[in-house]
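Write out the 3D structure for:
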Amino acid sequence: MSRLNFDSMSALLGSKVAVFDSAENSVQLSVVSVEKSPIDGDDWEGFSVLFNGDESFRIPQGSYRAVHDSFGQEEIFITAHGPTEYQTVISRKR
């Protein structure tokens, strides 16, 4: 089971996660919000994570490798929600 879950991400509120693209370029994104989705329950895990970046860079929508000591490495899909705001949504069968 993935160590990137609602509890591990909630514990990172205010912390930074390293995000790497396929060329190994990296940025640090701050975790600003973690919210359970309506599907979260006994059969499904569902939550979203809102990140903030820096105005000096923008990352395009796509798949990235997120890295943090608390969960190791996980592939996530990130969408931009503004000049410095990004989101990933996790939905998976438990």
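The CA atoms of residues 64 and 76 lie 5 Å apart.
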